Each structure stands twice: as C-alpha cells, then as structure tokens.
Amino acid sequence: MKRLLLFAMMCVCMSFVFGQKKGDKVVKVTSSEIRWWGYKVVKTVPTTHSGTVKLKSGKFTFDKTVLVDGEFVIDMKSIMAGDVSSQDEDMVKLTNDLKSTNFFDVKKFPLAKFHLTKIIPLANSDYNSTVYGDITIKGVRKTITFPANVYITQFTVVIESAKFSLNRRDFKVFYQSSLKDYFIKNEMDIQFKISTEKLDNENRTPVKKKK
C-alpha cells in the first residue's frame, strides 16, 4: 500500500513538472487602447455610437523566443460612450445603460477575457496576420478570428487589430425590452492596439528607449 501511494505521488509530481514548459517567459502588456462601435438598424453617423473600454491586465507567454499564447483581462466597469473627457448628458446616460443589466451588467460580470491561441501569417493583405482566440463576455465564451498587424521581436509584441465584429446576442447583450432592442444592430465592432512597450501616439510603434 505504501509503495502504491509513493508511486501515485511520483506520478503527480512528474505530471506537474511536465505541465510547466521549461524556459517559459511571461511579458506584460504596458500599452493598450480598446475602442468599440455600436449602430442603430438605420446606420448613419448620427445613429452610430462609439467609445472605449480599458484593459485591466495582459500578458504574453514565450517558450524560449517562440510566442505560445496571450491572456488579456478587460475591465468592463470602465466602458464608456463618447470621448473620455465628454460630459455630454446623452453619453453619460448611454454609458450607464451599457453598464446596466440591459447590456453588459458590469456588477455581475465586471471582467471580460480574451485568450490568444494562435497567430497565422497572411500574405497579400492589408494586415499581416490572422489572430485566433477565445473571448468571454458575460460568462459566454466564443472562438473568434480577426485580421491584425502583428510585430514580434524577441520578447516585444505589438498587435494592432483591424475593426472586427462581434454579435452582441451571442453574449446575451440586449435590452430586456424587445421593442427597444429591435432598433439596434446585432453587430458591434471592436478595434484594439496593445504592446509590451509604450507606443508612440502618432504612428503606434514602440517608443525608442533613450540610450
């Protein structure tokens, strides 16, 4: 019995060791920008709303110098309609609506997550890669893909996504009143820029370090 118990403990220890990749390096995201767009069914400039949401944390994992995956946590309590400095009454009302149970219910679901699983290079395209991953909003996880410009130099990563669409109904983001919800398009657009280094505000490239 003692030998059997000792053997089981050795198996557990071995599985733990092999489960950890030797030489893994974790690099944190230090610069980020996430924007969103929502539309009425009759899509015009006046019926389009946009705003921001903040990244709470983000990291990339490397095996030696090879990017393995990425984990990103989004602070849904930070979601905002309009400009960050805007005090427009309508934008404040919309922001509160977005945080309520009508849409993202941020009290119950304060965080959204994105797990980057794969990056495939693209040729002859406006963007150099296709990004694959799993996004979780309001506890619902979906696998998504989107085009992006991805730049990886050793342990420096910059990702600038195209504007891509998510179906809000896939994540149970809709008005409880079906009449109000009828006038809103199901597609919401997302675009983000993240980097493991601070980005230059004008050209979105990593700022050169002073020597």
Structure, described:
With 211 residues, the chain is α+β, with helices and mostly antiparallel strands. It has a single domain (24-195), classed as Lipid/polyisoprenoid-binding, YceI-like (Lipocalin), CATH 2.40.128.110. 16% of the residues lie in helices and 47% in strands. The chain is built from 3 helices and 10 strands. An 8-stranded antiparallel barrel has the order 2-3-4-5-6-7-8-10. Strand 3 and strand 4 (66-81) form a beta hairpin. This is YceI family protein. It comes from Chryseobacterium cheonjiense. It holds the Pfam family YceI.
Descriptors:
211 residues; alpha+beta; Lipocalin; eight-stranded antiparallel beta barrel; 47% strand; globular
Give a nutshell description of this structure.
The chain has 211 residues and is α+β, with helices and mostly antiparallel strands. The chain is 16% helix and 47% strand. It has an eight-stranded antiparallel beta barrel with strand order 2-3-4-5-6-7-8-10.
Please give the structural blueprint:
Layout: H1 2-19, E1 24-28, E2 31-39, E3 48-63, E4 66-81, H2 89-99, E5 111-121, E6 129-137, E7 140-153, E8 156-161, E9 164-167, H3 178-181, E10 187-195
Antiparallel strand pairs: 1-3, 2-3, 2-10, 3-4, 4-5, 5-6, 6-7, 7-8, 8-10, 9-10
Tell me the CATH superfamily. Lipid/polyisoprenoid-binding, YceI-like
Relative helix content: 10-25%
Which fold does the CATH topology refer to? Lipocalin
Rg, rounded, reads 21 Å
Number of domains: 1
Terminal residue distance = 64 Å
Large-scale geometry: globular
Write the H/E string, N to C. Answer: HEEEEHEEEEEHE
- Estimate what percentage of residues fall within beta strands: over 45%
User: How many DSSP helices?
Assistant: 3
